[in-house]
Amino acid sequence: MGHVSPALDPYSSELPASGPYVTLGEGNTPTLPLERLAGELGIGQIAAKLESVNPTGAYSDRAAALTMTMARQQDYRGWIVTTSGNAGLSMAAYGARAGLPGVVLLEDPVPEEKVSACMGYSAEVQLVHGVIEGDESRSNLIWLYDEVRAAAERYNLFIATPNHLFNPEGIRALDTIGYEIAEQLPSATHVYVPTGSGALIVAIGRALAQRGLTPKLVAAQPAGCAPIARYLVDHVATPEIERCYSHTSALQQARPADGYAAADAVTASGGWGTMISDQAILTAQRRLVAAEGLFVEPAAAAGLAALMTDIAAERIDQDAHPVIVLTSAGWKDLANGTLDATPVDTIDVDDIPATVNDWAAMLDGTKQSTAPA
């Protein structure tokens, strides 16, 4: 694949594998100032790290690039991943790019958009029931992990699951998000990270610490599935809960694989966990669209929801400069989002003048029934 990876090549000396990398052009994503939102929320500056612009629409493309590079370099027959959705699509795409067959085990429920996108590649794709929801989810998850390990050993497959438990080297590609934040916005005071398994916030914290920067890390989790935030806030015994009651896909991790490491990273930074309702997450998704033109899936809006909650609680000073990590694109979870689902009207060509006139009249606060002559 002799092309340069914008994510991996600049930092190859700090990663567990060197190039040439399997790449689709991931990384080097922009950090965008959110000036209108900052004004509305009464804070000086807010920035967004746009991981939603990666090739398959998610930050997990970075991990997929490094994972498939190592799988190919180490002569694995193929790969296997268990995931809530985004990493499955990333691995399917990058596996195809690398010419490596693979198995995607999607932890149901998964948005149909992610399932359909995965099916467009040559990977074997299956939905696994009872891992996230249900009374047997704990034992089923352990069983799933055991089966993944057994299949990997039996068939010489690289385990591509994006956490430090299964794929500690491949997940190092997520450090590059922290490296880029350090270069693009060294003045950041806080980094708000939507948190499911905990792998992402661990990687970002590690990278920022390596660069000598000390912004506070904030783990943003839905209140109905917030094992890491509860561990940090309520000082419970473990960063695990029995069941997940949130409907925010991609953040439904009752027993996060990197839960302890995530809590340690947050604590070391002087940060905290913030719990927000599913409705607050959807409200934040709408605010990003309306104020800044940024359409992300609900899970990716959790960082903004947490920031809004912390601003309301006077936890964030007016002169702070927080960064929210927008992890994934809005098209990946349309059914659970907040876009207007009103059917689009069909009109004739000769209706266009009246339609545009009515629209313009609404902008002016008036209403006219016909277009001007």
TrEMBL record:
Q: What are the Tryptophan synthase beta chain-like PALP domain coordinates in residue numbering?
A: 22-327
Requisite cofactors: pyridoxal 5'-phosphate
Q: Does the keyword Lyase apply?
A: yes
Question: What is the species of this protein?
Answer: Phytoactinopolyspora halophila
Against PANTHER family, the record matches this protein to: L-THREONINE DEHYDRATASE CATABOLIC TDCB, THREONINE DEHYDRATASE, MITOCHONDRIAL-RELATED
UniProt KW keywords: Lyase, Pyridoxal phosphate
Gene Ontology terms describing biological process = isoleucine biosynthetic process; L-serine catabolic process; L-threonine catabolic process
Q: Name one GO molecular function term.
A: L-serine ammonia-lyase activity
According to the record, the signal peptide region is: none
* Keyword Lyase set for record: yes
Entry's InterPro entries? Ser/Thr_Dehydratase, TrpB-like_PALP, TrpB-like_PALP_sf
Question: What domain of life is recorded for the organism?
Answer: Bacteria
Q: What is this protein called?
A: Tryptophan synthase beta chain-like PALP domain-containing protein
